[in-house]
Amino acid sequence: xxxxxxxxxxxxxxxxxxxxxxxxxxxxxxxxxxxxxxxxxxxxxxxxxxxxxxxxxxxxxxxxxxxxxxxxxxxxxxxxxxxxxxxxxxxxxxxxxxxxxxxxxxxxxxxxxxxxxxxxxxxxxxxxxxxxxxxxxxxxxxxxxxxxxxxxxxxxxxxxxxxxxxxxxxxxxxxxxxxxxxxxxxxxxxxxxxxxxxxxxxxxxxxxxxxxxxxxxxxx
Length: 220
Ligand SMILES: N[C@@H](CCC(=O)N[C@@H](CS)C(=O)NCC(=O)O)C(=O)O
Known about the structure:
By secondary structure, this protein is α+β, with helices and mostly antiparallel strands. The chain is built from eight helices and four strands. It folds into two domains: about 5-85 and about 200-220, Glutaredoxin, CATH 3.40.30; about 90-195, Glutathione S-transferase Yfyf (Class Pi), Chain A, domain 2, CATH 1.20.1050.10.
Protein backbone atom coordinates (compact mmCIF):
# COMPACT_ATOMS: atom_id res chain seq x y z
CA UNK A 1 0.00 0.00 0.00
CA UNK A 2 1.15 3.55 -0.72
CA UNK A 3 2.43 5.40 2.33
CA UNK A 4 2.78 9.18 2.71
CA UNK A 5 4.66 10.83 5.56
CA UNK A 6 3.08 13.73 7.42
CA UNK A 7 3.54 15.51 10.74
CA UNK A 8 1.65 14.44 13.86
CA UNK A 9 1.18 18.10 14.69
CA UNK A 10 2.24 21.54 13.41
CA UNK A 11 1.49 25.08 14.68
CA UNK A 12 -1.83 26.58 13.57
CA UNK A 13 -0.37 28.82 10.83
CA UNK A 14 0.82 25.70 8.98
CA UNK A 15 -2.22 23.52 9.53
CA UNK A 16 -3.90 22.87 6.19
CA UNK A 17 -0.86 23.79 4.13
CA UNK A 18 1.82 21.26 5.06
CA UNK A 19 3.06 19.87 1.75
CA UNK A 20 1.81 16.34 2.29
CA UNK A 21 -1.58 17.81 1.33
CA UNK A 22 -0.33 18.06 -2.26
CA UNK A 23 0.26 14.31 -2.36
CA UNK A 24 -2.91 13.43 -0.46
CA UNK A 25 -4.94 15.57 -2.87
CA UNK A 26 -3.35 13.99 -5.95
CA UNK A 27 -4.06 10.51 -4.60
CA UNK A 28 -7.66 11.46 -3.79
CA UNK A 29 -8.19 12.84 -7.30
CA UNK A 30 -6.68 9.68 -8.78
CA UNK A 31 -8.88 7.50 -6.58
CA UNK A 32 -5.87 5.71 -5.10
CA UNK A 33 -5.94 4.61 -1.46
CA UNK A 34 -2.99 5.28 0.83
CA UNK A 35 -1.84 5.10 4.40
CA UNK A 36 -0.02 7.79 6.37
CA UNK A 37 3.16 7.53 8.38
CA UNK A 38 3.01 10.27 10.99
CA UNK A 39 6.28 11.65 12.27
CA UNK A 40 7.17 14.03 15.09
CA UNK A 41 9.78 16.77 14.94
CA UNK A 42 12.07 14.40 16.87
CA UNK A 43 11.98 11.94 13.96
CA UNK A 44 13.18 14.42 11.34
CA UNK A 45 16.86 13.98 12.11
CA UNK A 46 16.99 10.22 12.46
CA UNK A 47 19.12 8.26 10.01
CA UNK A 48 16.10 6.13 9.16
CA UNK A 49 13.96 9.11 8.16
CA UNK A 50 16.82 10.89 6.38
CA UNK A 51 17.23 7.80 4.22
CA UNK A 52 13.67 8.40 3.05
CA UNK A 53 13.77 12.22 2.94
CA UNK A 54 17.33 13.66 2.86
CA UNK A 55 16.29 16.98 4.45
CA UNK A 56 14.11 15.50 7.18
CA UNK A 57 11.00 17.12 5.71
CA UNK A 58 7.54 15.90 4.75
CA UNK A 59 6.23 14.52 2.52
CA UNK A 60 8.07 11.34 1.64
CA UNK A 61 6.37 8.57 -0.28
CA UNK A 62 6.59 4.80 -0.51
CA UNK A 63 4.91 2.67 -3.17
CA UNK A 64 5.85 -0.99 -3.46
CA UNK A 65 9.67 -0.86 -3.86
CA UNK A 66 9.72 2.85 -4.79
CA UNK A 67 10.74 5.57 -2.33
CA UNK A 68 10.35 9.23 -3.28
CA UNK A 69 10.67 12.71 -1.81
CA UNK A 70 9.86 16.21 -3.17
CA UNK A 71 6.14 16.84 -3.37
CA UNK A 72 6.30 18.06 -6.99
CA UNK A 73 8.03 14.89 -8.15
CA UNK A 74 5.59 12.74 -6.19
CA UNK A 75 2.53 14.53 -7.61
CA UNK A 76 3.97 14.19 -11.12
CA UNK A 77 4.56 10.48 -10.52
CA UNK A 78 0.96 9.97 -9.37
CA UNK A 79 -0.26 11.99 -12.36
CA UNK A 80 1.54 9.64 -14.76
CA UNK A 81 -1.08 7.01 -14.02
CA UNK A 82 -4.22 9.14 -13.74
CA UNK A 83 -5.96 10.87 -16.61
CA UNK A 84 -7.76 13.06 -14.08
CA UNK A 85 -4.36 14.58 -13.29
CA UNK A 86 -2.65 14.51 -16.69
CA UNK A 87 -3.83 13.78 -20.21
CA UNK A 88 -2.22 10.86 -22.04
CA UNK A 89 -1.17 12.74 -25.19
CA UNK A 90 2.39 14.07 -25.30
CA UNK A 91 1.44 17.71 -25.86
CA UNK A 92 -1.13 17.67 -23.09
CA UNK A 93 1.39 16.13 -20.68
CA UNK A 94 3.99 18.73 -21.61
CA UNK A 95 1.50 21.54 -20.96
CA UNK A 96 0.68 20.16 -17.52
CA UNK A 97 4.38 19.96 -16.73
CA UNK A 98 4.89 23.61 -17.77
CA UNK A 99 2.31 24.79 -15.27
CA UNK A 100 3.41 22.37 -12.60
CA UNK A 101 6.94 23.78 -12.76
CA UNK A 102 5.59 27.33 -13.06
CA UNK A 103 3.82 26.86 -9.72
CA UNK A 104 6.99 25.68 -7.98
CA UNK A 105 9.65 27.74 -9.77
CA UNK A 106 7.96 30.93 -10.97
CA UNK A 107 5.29 31.61 -8.35
CA UNK A 108 6.23 29.78 -5.14
CA UNK A 109 9.54 31.67 -4.54
CA UNK A 110 7.67 35.00 -4.44
CA UNK A 111 4.97 33.61 -2.14
CA UNK A 112 7.53 31.92 0.09
CA UNK A 113 9.56 35.09 0.53
CA UNK A 114 6.51 37.04 1.69
CA UNK A 115 5.30 34.21 3.92
CA UNK A 116 8.79 33.91 5.41
CA UNK A 117 8.71 37.58 6.36
CA UNK A 118 5.16 37.60 7.70
CA UNK A 119 5.15 34.32 9.58
CA UNK A 120 8.67 34.17 10.98
CA UNK A 121 10.28 37.61 10.87
CA UNK A 122 7.51 40.23 11.00
CA UNK A 123 9.02 42.04 13.99
CA UNK A 124 12.55 42.31 12.57
CA UNK A 125 13.79 45.64 11.22
CA UNK A 126 15.17 44.12 8.01
CA UNK A 127 11.80 42.44 7.33
CA UNK A 128 9.88 45.70 7.73
CA UNK A 129 12.26 47.36 5.29
CA UNK A 130 12.17 44.55 2.73
CA UNK A 131 8.45 43.66 2.81
CA UNK A 132 7.06 46.44 0.53
CA UNK A 133 9.40 45.43 -2.31
CA UNK A 134 8.68 41.73 -1.80
CA UNK A 135 4.93 42.37 -1.89
CA UNK A 136 5.26 44.55 -4.99
CA UNK A 137 7.22 41.84 -6.82
CA UNK A 138 4.68 39.22 -5.78
CA UNK A 139 1.77 41.38 -6.97
CA UNK A 140 3.43 41.84 -10.36
CA UNK A 141 3.87 38.06 -10.64
CA UNK A 142 0.24 37.43 -9.64
CA UNK A 143 -0.92 39.96 -12.20
CA UNK A 144 0.91 38.05 -14.92
CA UNK A 145 -0.44 34.77 -13.58
CA UNK A 146 -4.00 36.07 -13.67
CA UNK A 147 -3.53 37.31 -17.24
CA UNK A 148 -2.28 33.86 -18.24
CA UNK A 149 -5.27 32.17 -16.63
CA UNK A 150 -7.73 34.58 -18.23
CA UNK A 151 -11.27 33.23 -18.21
CA UNK A 152 -10.22 29.58 -18.14
CA UNK A 153 -11.12 27.39 -15.18
CA UNK A 154 -7.70 25.68 -14.92
CA UNK A 155 -4.14 26.41 -16.02
CA UNK A 156 -3.16 23.62 -18.41
CA UNK A 157 -5.41 23.87 -21.45
CA UNK A 158 -8.43 24.75 -19.34
CA UNK A 159 -8.79 21.28 -17.78
CA UNK A 160 -8.09 20.34 -14.17
CA UNK A 161 -4.67 18.73 -13.77
CA UNK A 162 -1.83 18.03 -11.35
CA UNK A 163 -0.59 21.55 -12.09
CA UNK A 164 -3.67 22.99 -10.37
CA UNK A 165 -2.89 21.03 -7.22
CA UNK A 166 0.54 22.64 -7.03
CA UNK A 167 -0.65 26.12 -8.05
CA UNK A 168 -3.55 26.13 -5.60
CA UNK A 169 -1.33 24.96 -2.78
CA UNK A 170 1.19 27.70 -3.51
CA UNK A 171 -1.50 30.41 -3.59
CA UNK A 172 -2.99 29.09 -0.34
CA UNK A 173 0.21 30.12 1.40
CA UNK A 174 -1.08 33.69 1.06
CA UNK A 175 -4.12 32.92 3.22
CA UNK A 176 -2.78 35.12 6.00
CA UNK A 177 -3.13 38.14 3.65
CA UNK A 178 -5.88 39.53 1.41
CA UNK A 179 -3.56 39.68 -1.60
CA UNK A 180 -5.18 36.93 -3.71
CA UNK A 181 -8.60 38.61 -3.30
CA UNK A 182 -7.22 41.52 -5.34
CA UNK A 183 -7.02 39.16 -8.36
CA UNK A 184 -10.63 38.04 -8.95
CA UNK A 185 -9.80 35.33 -11.48
CA UNK A 186 -7.13 33.83 -9.20
CA UNK A 187 -9.39 34.17 -6.18
CA UNK A 188 -12.19 32.31 -7.98
CA UNK A 189 -9.66 29.74 -9.19
CA UNK A 190 -8.44 28.95 -5.66
CA UNK A 191 -12.03 28.72 -4.38
CA UNK A 192 -12.97 26.43 -7.30
CA UNK A 193 -10.02 24.14 -6.54
CA UNK A 194 -10.68 24.11 -2.80
CA UNK A 195 -14.31 23.15 -3.45
CA UNK A 196 -13.26 19.88 -5.07
CA UNK A 197 -14.27 16.93 -2.89
CA UNK A 198 -10.78 15.42 -3.28
CA UNK A 199 -9.20 18.55 -1.81
CA UNK A 200 -11.70 18.58 1.05
CA UNK A 201 -10.87 14.96 1.90
CA UNK A 202 -7.13 15.63 1.74
CA UNK A 203 -7.53 18.66 4.00
CA UNK A 204 -9.63 16.76 6.53
CA UNK A 205 -7.10 13.93 6.57
CA UNK A 206 -4.18 16.28 7.16
CA UNK A 207 -6.03 18.08 9.96
CA UNK A 208 -7.30 14.95 11.76
CA UNK A 209 -4.02 14.06 13.53
CA UNK A 210 -3.53 17.70 14.59
CA UNK A 211 -6.97 17.74 16.21
CA UNK A 212 -6.24 14.41 17.92
CA UNK A 213 -2.90 15.71 19.21
CA UNK A 214 -4.51 18.90 20.50
CA UNK A 215 -7.23 16.89 22.28
CA UNK A 216 -4.55 14.70 23.85
CA UNK A 217 -2.62 17.79 25.01
CA UNK A 218 -5.79 19.16 26.69
CA UNK A 219 -6.64 15.87 28.39
CA UNK A 220 -5.05 15.80 31.86
N1 LIG B 1 10.66 20.97 -1.62
C1 LIG B 1 10.09 20.12 -0.60
C2 LIG B 1 9.81 20.98 0.61
C3 LIG B 1 9.23 20.17 1.76
C4 LIG B 1 8.95 21.06 2.94
O1 LIG B 1 9.33 22.25 2.98
N2 LIG B 1 8.27 20.47 3.93
C5 LIG B 1 8.00 21.22 5.13
C6 LIG B 1 6.53 21.10 5.50
S1 LIG B 1 5.54 21.98 4.29
C7 LIG B 1 8.79 20.61 6.27
O2 LIG B 1 8.89 19.42 6.38
N3 LIG B 1 9.31 21.49 7.13
C8 LIG B 1 10.07 21.07 8.26
C9 LIG B 1 11.52 21.34 8.08
O3 LIG B 1 11.94 21.86 7.05
O4 LIG B 1 12.25 21.05 9.02
C10 LIG B 1 8.80 19.46 -1.11
O5 LIG B 1 8.08 20.12 -1.87
O6 LIG B 1 8.52 18.30 -0.78
